[in-house]
Design goal:
The chain has 14 helices and 2 strands, in the order ββαααααααααααααα. It is mainly α and about 300 residues long. It starts with a strand and ends in a 5-residue tail after the last helix.
Length: about 300
């Protein structure tokens, strides 16, 4: 409503009209989302309901039917007594082996990658671009092609078949991508913070620990999710370098599902599937918000 020259002029609402919820474009988007969600969630539904059935019910009922008499026997056997090779100790042994490998590997790779990314983003040392280009090149090298040289090197240092070898290999393999991720994350932060800290007399380590890392928590969340998913689910490198006495959970899961002897206990196999993939899922749901924010920061081009 506006007044002018003794008259009152009515002004209508401005801007585009709100779209109705049944607009064709919105219906199409929701339909695609629902179909995609069903495509990925339906196999998970089959795995869960099968793990809660007894063998008799699995044989004589539909694979899609809900369990009529839910039981956790398959879960208990998969965790505690399932045969994963010569020993029938369940997945619990492999779980703790994977924890011993994953936790230090994730911590070391994130620390080293964040340190390299910090130096390359804010401390312009001589040759920084060359080293960054070399690390980018390493990301695209198929890791299987360096398997034999790594095995020779670990054998030369007498580390083959030990936990330190598996931790070291997983840390080094994750370093190039972690460096790229943190370099972009630090470059996206306001450079005035870095300059103000320099003016106040803060050095390399103090700026890293007290100024930048608290602001880079979304990037840390992305790094944790990606590294846990990769290292926990790794089968080839961890099994080879950790040795027979430190077999990861993925190797023992393969022995349960791929066994060709005796009766196929599908409830135990499905329970083992969920138990093996539980840790990355828990980490993802715990860091979900940080992951969504960090992805937007980590892929942003440096200024």
């Amino acid at each position: 409503m506006a007044a002018g020259a003794g008259k009152m002029i009515l002004i209508g609402p401005q801007g585009p009209r709100p779209r109705q919820w049944w607009a064709p474009s919105r219906i199409f988007v929701y339909a695609v989302l629902l179909i995609s969600a069903a495509f990925f969630l339906f196999p998970l539904y089959v795995v869960v309901v099968t793990s809660l059935k007894g063998l008799d019910e699995i044989r004589y009922s539909s694979i899609f039917a809900l369990p009529m008499r839910p039981t956790t026997e398959g879960w208990v056997e998969a965790w505690d007594t399932a045969c994963t090779g010569l020993h029938c100790e369940g997945l619990k042994v492999g779980f703790w082996n994977s924890m011993k490998i994953t936790v230090p590997s994730v911590m070391l790779s994130i620390f080293a990658g964040s340190l390299c990314g910090y130096a390359m983003a804010l401390w312009r040392f001589h040759g920084a671009e060359f080293f960054f280009t070399a690390m980018l090149f390493c990301i695209f090298i198929p890791q299987q092609t360096i398997l034999y040289p790594l095995a020779q090197m670990m054998g030369y240092f007498r580390l083959m078949g030990t936990l330190p070898a598996a931790i070291m290999i997983n840390t080094v393999l994750g370093l190039p991508f972690m460096t790229l991720l943190f370099r972009n994350g630090f470059a996206a932060l306001p450079t005035d913070l870095f300059r103000a800290a320099r003016v106040d007399g803060a050095g390399f380590w103090r700026i890293y620990a007290q100024v930048l890392m608290p602001l880079a928590m979304p990037t840390v969340g992305v790094a944790v999710v990606l590294q846990v998913t990769y290292i926990w689910g790794d089968y080839l490198f961890t099994t080879l370098f950790a040795g027979m006495h430190h077999l990861p959970m993925t190797m023992q899961y393969h022995n349960i599902v791929g066994s060709m002897y005796g009766v196929a206990e599908y409830n135990v196999q499905m329970a083992a599937t969920i138990l093996t993939g539980a840790v990355p899922l828990i980490v993802y749901f715990s860091c979900g918000r940080l992951f969504a924010r960090g992805i937007a920061v980590g892929v942003a081009p440096p200024r």
